[in-house]
Amino acid sequence: MISLYKPALEDLWFRQKMMADPQTMSYNRAWGGTIPFPESDWPDWYRHWVEEPEGKRFYRYLTDESGTFLGEIAYHLDEERGIYVADVIVFSEYRGRGTGRTGLLLLCDQAADSGIEYLYDDIASDNTAIKMFLDLGFEEVMRYEKTILLKKDLRIESGTCLYRDDRSALYTRDGSVFFTEGGRCFRLSSHPYEPCLYMTGIPDGSQTVIHNAFEVSELTAAVSTGQMIRLITGDSYDGPGICSLLGTAAELSPGEYDIDYIECRRFLDILMEAGAVSAETALDLAPYGLENHRIMDRMLHSKYAARTDSGSYHLTGKPLKF
Predict the structure, then answer these.
(1) Phi, psi (5° rounding) for residue 78?
(2) Is 322 part of a structural domain of the chain?
(3) Cβ(136)–Cβ(123) below 8 Å
(4) Are both 236 and 294 inside the same structural domain?
(5) What is the model's pLDDT at position 289?
(6) What is the pLDDT of residues 4-56, one digit of tens each?
(7) Domain range for residue 112?
(8) Taking the alpha carbons of 229, 259, 240, 316 in that order, is the dihedral positive or negative?
């Protein structure tokens, strides 16, 4: 698990090491690459960034369970432009493990908790990290010759958080309910007579409709109080389970789907993510709240999945076309 750590003055050796490493600083080549950070500069820098941030700056290290320093996250107020600018650096040795993604999510949380409504970043136009920023809800604001200015609206995250995991979150703000998945944001609403659940994308207005689902009030109650929601398909879900279904729906193209279809997709997604591709790697699905035998039987009948004698499931390798 990645955590935030407020470094002591003597811990700045790690920042010095990162700033001097060409591979770590390759993202900065548009601005000159490596940056000198001599020990004589540490006291003034530390006072400015850590001891006396004045509400304009934030700085922390990223650490793992063992306390190893992995990188840094920061934001600061660019007073000339009047915007808060993000900074996420992961030491080259620890890249490719999702550390940057987690660090950026933690930084957005910190900024939102501090009342910052928008967070920006200047990124070199050839930096592969652009995709990560876009996946986490940043949008391109301006494109220059060598750089791109990205921006994220943090106002949703500044509401009341009902649920959060590594991929998704559920918020209430100003009487509305919002669901975020992988940086995308949806406003949730419902039609009580069917019931339908509407997921309206922000800011593009795209809409995914889930038929025979549940009302938003049922969702917030399940997350807040631990109640279960029983769907028309026969499955019962707790709050995290329902958020998992919404995450599956968020991955689909905008359109209209039945909750039965969403459940089937989630069933297959879980098997794929777990690598359950044979009897030897078959997965017990009970811990995932998947106990709807009608859904299971549909997948078995279509030969997308198979069941072992012990009751576990695995994919068959049949191309998914349903």
Answers:
(1) -85, 95
(2) no
(3) no
(4) no
(5) 63
(6) 999 999 999 999 999 999 999 988 877 788 999 999 999 999 999 999 999 89
(7) 3-153
(8) positive
